[in-house]
Amino acid sequence: MEWTLIMRPYFKRLIFFAAIFYLLFPFVNPIIFATNAQGHNMQAMMQSIREKPTLEQPQLIFEQFCANCHGKEPSIDVGAPIIGEKKGWAAWFKLSQSDLLKQVMNSTGIMPPRGGCSECTAKELGAVIHFIKSSIQE
Q1: Which end of the chain is less congested by CB atoms within 10 angstroms, N or C?
Q2: How many alpha carbons fall within 13 Å on the CB side of residue 97?
Q3: Is the pLDDT of residue 51 over 50?
Q4: Rounded mean pLDDT of 119-123?
Q5: Helix, coil or strand: residue 110
Q6: Mean pLDDT, to the nearest integer, of 123-133?
Q7: What angle do CA 116, 71, 23 make, to 5 degrees?
Q8: Taking residues 36-44, what's their average pLDDT?
Q9: What CA–CA distances, in Å, run from 122 to 11, 52, 104, 114?
């Protein structure tokens, strides 16, 4: 029996599940990124972050929203630049701070707008960008 005849049912299943994933991903993607560890109450979580000292806030926001894709050990591997790794961020850091902030605020594709933190202000996101830049060791 030929190898392709044996594997044909498996390929059909693979194609079926890939098609389902492709069709559902635009609907599931915002749900994945909108979840958080504190009972899905983003306002309460952001309030608790805002009560911390100002210097700690960018790191806490990064850990809650950005680290899923940009952390040292991302839980969602989408090929995003990793914090602390200069090579991955090089092209992004060529942009001005305001252009980079605009990109984060209005991002499209896999990264949700505001990095998934709909409650974050532009000032808070700017501080997170500065936090990420400061993580790069020259």
Answers
A1: C
A2: 11
A3: yes
A4: 91
A5: coil
A6: 94
A7: 50
A8: 59
A9: 47, 18, 9, 9
To the question of pTM greater than 0.70 for the whole model, the response is no
Closest CA to 67 of 53, 54, 77: 77
Question: Which residue ranges make up each domain of the chain?
Answer: 35-134
Contact residues for 48 (Cβ-Cβ < 8 A; gap 6+): 38
The whole-number pLDDT of residue 21 equals: 65
Instruction: Give the chain's radius of gyration (CA, Å).
Output: 19
The answer to whether 117 and 107 are in contact (CB under 8 A) is: no
* Residue with tokens 């991955």, as numbered in its chain: 88
Question: How many Cα atoms are found within 13 Å in the side-chain-facing hemisphere of 104?
Answer: 29
CATH code of 35-134, in short, is: 1.10.760.10
Is residue 46 a contact partner of residue 125, using CB atoms and an 8 Å limit?
no
Residue 126 sits at the vertex; the CA angle it makes with 65 and 84, to the nearest 5 degrees, is 65
